[in-house]
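Per reviewer request, we include the raw input and output of the structure prediction for the construct analysed in the revised manuscript.
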Amino acid sequence: MSDAEPPETASGSPPGSTPPPDAELTAEFWGESERRGRRRGRSRRTETVTAGGDFFEFTQTDDTESDDPDAHRRLDSPDLSWSTRLTHRIANVPVEGWLTLVIVGTCVGFVVAQLGGSLLITDTTPAGGDMGAHVWGPAFMRDHLLPSLRLTGWSPDWYAGLPAFQFYMVPPMLAIAVLSYVLPYGIAFKLVAVSGVVTMPIAAWAFGRLTRLPFPAPALLAVGATAFLFDRSFSIYGGNLASTLAGEFAFSISLSLSLVYLGVVARGLRTGRHRGLAAVLLALVALCHVIPAIFAVVGTAALFLVHTGATAVWRRRARAAVIPGLVAVAVIAVVSVIPQVTGWGSPDGSPWLGGSVLVALAAVAGVSLLVWMFCAPGRTRWVWLATMAPVAGLLVAWWYWPFWSQRAYLNDMGWERKTNIATLLWNRGSQVAGEALDGGLVDSPPLQWVIGLAVVGLVLSLVNRRRAGVALALIAIIAALGVWGMPQGRLWNARLTPFYYLSLYLLAGIGIAEFGRLISSLVARDLARPVRWVRWATGVAATLVVLVLIGLPLRSLPGGTLDGPTYRWGPFSTTDSSFVPGWARWNFSGYEGKAAWPEYQALMATMTTVGQQEGCGRAMWEYEKDLDRYGTPMALMLLPFWTDGCIGSMEGLYFETSTTTPYHFLMQDQLSAAPSNAQRDLPYVAGAPSPGEFDKGIANLQLFGVRYYLATSAEMKALADDHPDLTEIATSGPWNVYEVADAPLVEGLTYDPIVVQGADVGGDVWLDLAVEWFIDPNARELFAAASGPDSWPRVDMSAALDGLTLGADVWGPQQAVAPATVSNIETDTDRVSFSVDRTGVPVLVKTSYFPNWDVSGAEGPWRVTPNLMVVVPTERQVSLTYGRSGPELIGWVVTGLGIVLLIGLWRWGRVKGVGPMWWFWPTWAHPDPPDGNVPLSTPPLGFEAPARPGSTPEPPRADPPVESDAIVDARLPGPATEQEVGPRPSGAGDTIWGYGTTQGSSAAPEES
C-alpha cells in the first residue's frame, strides 16, 4: 500500500468524537509482502496523520520483516556496491513482475517483427503512401528551419510556397531531424515513424500500472493494445499499424503518449502529485497530433469523474443530480443511438424522437454532468486539475495560438462524413451495399467479440471498483457518440473511431484479467488465499491466444507452413492473409528497394541537371496511378528533396496547409490524362483534357510562375509537343520535360486589382470567389483582392460573384495602369527581391499569400486571386521577407509564462489534502483502499460517518471483502486498551479483513 487515501474523519478518542486541529495520530498497516519472491516476509508501514480541518497529512515510514531481519537494511546500505544492490533487487522481483516483463516484451517484439525487423535499421529512404512524401518534412526542418533557430517557417518547395509546420505537427519531425544528425536519415526517419506503435504496448502497460490495476491486468492491457495495432478494419483514421504505414505516424506517437498521460492523471488525482509531469505529457500529446488530444481530454474528464471524493452531504447531492442525467442518456440511447447503430426499432434506423426532444435530453444530461462534476470530486482534485490543465495549455500556445488565429488560411479537403455508423461501431462484417467496410479492409479481429469481452471488463470493473475500467468505458461511449453525432466539418467523424476501438481493446484486457482473478479466488480453499498460479496462467494463456489469432493471418508464427492459399500452424489453419507485413516491407525497403528505382533515380538526376543548366524553378508533373511503382503515387513530391530544393513540386503532401492547393488540383485536372481530383467539391472536367482545357492549364502554369512541366502519358506528350509555349528540354525514361515560356515569378499588372468587400474573412468565402475567378480565363486581367489601397476600385461580394458566374469579360470596374518592368528577380527559401523601373503601380508576386510576409520598398503585400500577392513599390528595389506574425510572438510569450508556471508546479509539489474517494452508490464515510477497492464491511473503530442533525446514519455495508494492495489489517488510534474487531488471519494474501486499534503504538502486533 503505497498511496492510501486519508479518511474523512479520524479520531484517537472515543467513537464519534473529532480530533483537535493538528493532532498527530499514528497508524500501523501490516500485511504480507509480495515483493520478496518465495521468501515473503511481513511488511509494516507506519503513518503519522496530522488532522487539521477537512484534510489530513500522512507522513509514511516503511519497514519490512523477512527471514533475515537485517536484510532490508543491508540492501540499502551505502557500503554495498551498486551491482550488489541491483542483483538483490532483480533476485527479489516476484513471479508476477517477471511474467509482466515477458508478456510486454513479447508484444513489443511481435510488433517489431511484423514491421520488417532489420529493415528498420537499413539505410533506405522510406516509401509507401503518405509516408513516402513525409520524407521531405524533417529534412527541410533540419536544413533550413533549425539553422535559423525556427520550428516553423516558409517553404517554397510545394504549392508555390506554404507555411511549413504552421498547421502541421512539429515534435515528430523535429525528433527525426535531430536524430538524423547522429544516424543516417532513412534510419532516423523509420525509428521515429514506428516509435508510436512499438511503444504502445508499453504505454498501455504503464496506464494499467499507474491506475493500480492488479496483475495480470497491466500486462493484458499491453496485449489489448497489440490487438488494436493489428486491427485491419481501418487504414487511415490513425493509431493502428495500417494507419501508421499509410503515413499517420504522428497520430500513433500522440496516442501512445496519451495512454501514459492518462495513467499519470489517474495517479495524480489519487495522490495529488505529478501535476508538472501531467502538464508536459498533455502538451506533448497535443503537439504531436491535434486529434489524439481529444482522446486525452475526454480521458481526463472520465478519470476525473471516477476519482470522486466529496463529503457525505455533497455525495448525496451529486447522486441526486446524476439520476436525471442517466435517465436522459438512457432515453437518447434507446430512441436514437441504438436504432442508428443496430437498425433495430425503426425501418431505416432513424431516431424515434424529433431533433428538438433529443437536444433537450442532451441538455439535461449535460447539466447533470456539470452538477456531478461540481459536487463529486472534492476541492483538492479540482485544484489539481485546475492547476495542471492551464499550464499544459500555456505550454502549447507557441504553436496553437498562431494555428487558431490564422486558421482562415487552412484548406479544407472536404472529407465526407461517414454514415455507415452501424458498420463502424457494431457489425464490421456487414456486406450490405453502402454499409460494408472500404475495399481491402476486414473485420479482424472480430469487433463483436471485442465488445463482448469489454462488457465483461466493465461489469467486473464495477463489481471490483476498478476506476480505470469504468473510465475506459466512458471514453468508448463518448467516442461512439462522437462518431455518430459529429456533423460534416473539418473534423472527420471517422477519425474518432480509433479511440472507440482502443478503449474496447483495453477494456477487454481488463475483463480477461478480472475474470482470471475471479477464478483464482473461486478455486481456492480459502477466499483470502487466491491461487496465484491461476492468475499467472490467465496472463500467459490470454497472451498466447491473442498472438496466435493475430499471427495466423500475418502468416508469421514459428513453424507455420503455407499450403497453397492456406496457412497452417499446428491444428490451426486459415486462408486469410493480412496486408500489414507486405505493406511494412514495401515501406521500409524504401525507394531504393523498388524495381523502378533506376528509372526514378534517373528522373531525379535529370531534374537536378536541368536545374543546374536551365535554372531552378517550380515543376508541374502529370499524375497517374502507376507512379506507385516508384514506392508511392506521391513519389514526385520529393523533387525538392532529391534536388536540394532547386526544383519545387507544385503538389505536396500537406494539402490543408496551403490555400493554393485547390488551384493545383484544378491545374492537374487540365494537365493529366488520369488526374487524382483529390480535393472534393471543385469544378473538375470529366475525362482526359481536351486541347482547349490543356491550353487553360498551361496559362495557369504561367499564372503561378511554374517553369517546368513533366508529361508521361502519350496523350499529354502529344498535346505538349504541339503547344507554342512549351519547349522540350530533356527526357528520362517515360518522362518528357518541357520548359514553360512567359512564366516569371514577378511581373507588373496592367490594371489595378479590384477590392472585393467581404473577401478579407478568407476561408470558404475567399475560396468561392477565387475558384470562380480561376476557371474563367476572361477574368484574368482583373485580379480580385481581399484588401488594398483606397485608390483601387471596389465592388461588393455578391456583385463580384454574379459577374464571375456569368463569365463576363469585365466583372468589375477597370482601372488601367502602365505596367512596371521587373528585373533582377532573386529568390531564397523565405525571401523574394526584385527591381522595378517605376513606382506607384501594382506588381504581382507569384508566391502563395500568407499574413507573415513583410515588404520593404513597397506597400502591401495584399492577397489577390487565386492566392498570390500584390505590392505597390515605393522604391526601385523591393524585398519581401517571411517574418514572425503577431500571433506567433504572442504564442511564444504565453509559452514562456507556461514554463515559469511549470517550474512553480514542480516546486510547489503535491496538492495537499487529497481526500478519500467514493463510488456511485452509498458507502460509509471511510477511505477506499488503494486502487479504489471496496471499504471494509464494518467501519473501523474511531471512524464515524458525518451525519446531519436529526438524520439517521447510513447502515453498515455488507460488501464482501475484496483484494487490494497487500494489506491484511490496520491498527488505528483508539482507546488505551487494545480492541480487536474480528480475527486477524495468519495466512498469506492481499485481502482486507479487519481493523484493530492501539494507542499510538508502533510495535509489531503478535501473530495470531
